[in-house]
Specification:
Order of helices and strands: HHHEEEHEHHEEHEEEEHHEHEHH
Largest sheet: 6 strands, mixed
Strand content: 15-25%
Number of domains: 3
Strand order of the largest sheet: 10-9-4-6-5-11
Distance between the termini: 32 Å
Oligomer: single chain
Length: 492
């Protein structure tokens, strides 16, 4: 706690003392621990009542009236590490298990261990060049003549901002989802060609499954990391055909990535050229091994990598992690229902047609990110259907950061339900209701939203709780890593 209090302003310190000295402090701490140290918890007021359906006996009655401040605090569930590290940790854990289940199998998620025998690779598809940027080439010297250290903030920024294609960058980000869709369509065709099958015959013989995550490069361009797997026609439960191999899958991926079909063309607009977007020349395809042999990446490494980037967004490029568009016009800059561009009467009265709800010049962001976000707003009138300003804080990218094909493995919803069921079982046991059939219990509830977040003092205390929980997890992980396999099995 001493480290937590160091450097705090007097107002925050005073609030900490007020919270710590309140009668309900122990219960408040318990609520925050149950949220994992959530940085922005949701406040609820209300009650829940459990009754026996047959006898009408009241089995449990809970109300928030006796909670600190008359409120129950629950986790916000935000996936972004920049907004809530605690909830992002949970999201990353779910993503890890989702990806790893599709690589190693998991009986609890109905994914057989035989999925390990299916051809699978880890693929990285990058963006094309939009102009030279400060980087760390293999010879160690950037074009500017400097050997940039890893933490140099200038890395990824344009060598010449006057000639850098900021518009091309945000338009590529905006169309990256469509480019991925074209890639997966072409990939199936390339696999069918190499197997000597028609498209229809391929669907009867094999299925392509994937799980992917988007990552922003330091220059602000999006790229995708994907686990791509070849299954039998019924997904991970069925064995792939005899012709399926890692070599065939790798060749098909490389061919699909450069094929002319895998191109998304953005039409010319006022002052903007016609732009055919394709993947960049840096394409990486590597086999995934079950265990570390020193040559290729492992299942655990891949799952950890995908999970890590599932909780990040454009803030890692120096941009803001909150939306900057005008809420009244949703970033269009237009106010009338007919959305007539060019009409003075159609301009949003709040943002005066800019589509922005924030002054980019005043935001604490890097100049490179500011130019990219400004390009989104400038291009919005030229491409009114692309919602560029609405996604300016994401540098134009409007897709899901992590996604998967239908039959890759389990779903995040299923993982959350497993966790909810486990907690519900714990609660029934604690209340002495575990011997009752769930169907015999009637649950009535009434909940109301009552706000969110912490006071400054609560925020500092919650951060301390989150760090303690993280330390405990790391200690347990290290202990398991050094524990003999037989002991791990017995402990589990």
């Amino acid at each position: 706690m001493t480290e937590t209090l160091t450097g705090l302003d007097p107002a925050t310190l005073g609030d900490i003392l007020k919270v710590a000295g309140s009668p309900g402090f122990d219960r408040w701490q318990d609520q925050i621990r149950r949220t994992g140290g959530c940085a922005n918890p949701i406040h609820l007021t209300g009650w829940t009542l459990a009754k026996d359906k047959t006898t009408g006996e009241t089995l449990r009655h809970y109300t928030t009236e006796h909670e600190p401040g008359g409120r129950l605090r629950v986790a916000c569930g935000n996936r972004r590490a920049s907004r809530c590290p605690a909830c992002a940790w949970t999201y990353a854990g779910d993503t890890y298990h989702l990806i790893r289940a599709g690589l190693a199998g998991d009986d609890t998620k109905d994914i057989p261990a035989t999925v390990r025998e299916h051809p699978r690779v880890f693929t990285t598809l990058t963006a094309p060049s939009f102009g030279p940027v400060h980087n760390q080439p293999s010879n160690g010297r950037c074009r500017c003549g400097t050997n940039h250290p890893d933490d140099d903030p200038i890395l990824g920024t344009a060598l010449d901002p006057a000639t850098y294609d900021y518009a091309g960058t945000v338009l590529f980000n905006n169309h990256a989802g469509e480019l991925w869709q074209r890639f997966t369509t072409r990939l199936r065709r390339e696999i069918a060609t190499r197997a000597g099958l028609t498209q229809r015959e391929l669907t009867e013989a094999a299925r392509v499954s994937y799980g992917k995550v988007a990552e922003f490069q330091k220059r602000g361009a999006i790229h995708f990391h994907a686990v791509i797997r070849l299954d039998g026609p019924d997904g991970p439960e069925s064995a792939p055909p005899s012709w399926a191999s890692v070599t065939l899958l790798t060749d098909a991926i490389r061919a699909a990535a450069v094929h002319a079909y895998t191109t998304v063309t953005v039409p010319a607009a006022d002052g903007q050229p016609r732009r055919p977007f394709r993947w960049g020349t840096q394409l990486d395809v590597r086999p995934i091994r079950a265990f570390d042999d020193g040559a290729d990446i492992t299942e655990q490494a891949v799952a950890s990598y995908v999970a890590k980037y599932a909780t990040k967004a454009a803030e890692n490029t120096g941009a803001t992690d909150t939306a900057v568009h005008c809420r009244k016009c949703r970033g269009t800059g237009l106010s009338d229902r007919y959305n007539r561009p060019g009409s003075a009467l159609s301009r949003c009265a709040r943002c005066h047609g800019s589509g922005l709800g924030e002054d980019l010049a005043q935001l604490p962001i890097t100049e490179h990110a500011r130019r990219l976000m400004g390009a989104c707003a400038a291009l919005q009138p030229l491409y009114p259907d692309r919602a560029l300003t609405r996604w300016a804080h994401m540098l134009g990218f409007r897709g899901h950061f992590s996604s998967k094909s239908r039959r890759y493995s389990t779903t995040l919803g299923a993982l959350r339900q497993i966790r909810a069921d486990y907690r519900a079982a714990q609660e029934r046991e604690a209340l002495g209701l575990d011997d009752r059939e769930p169907d015999t219990v009637l649950v009535l509830a009434d909940w109301q939203y009552a706000g969110h977040g912490h006071t400054p003092g609560e925020s500092a205390l919650a951060a301390s709780i989150a760090r303690d929980l993280q330390l405990n997890r790391e200690t347990a992980r290290e202990a398991l890593a050094t524990m003999p396999a037989s002991d791990v099995e017995a402990w589990a």
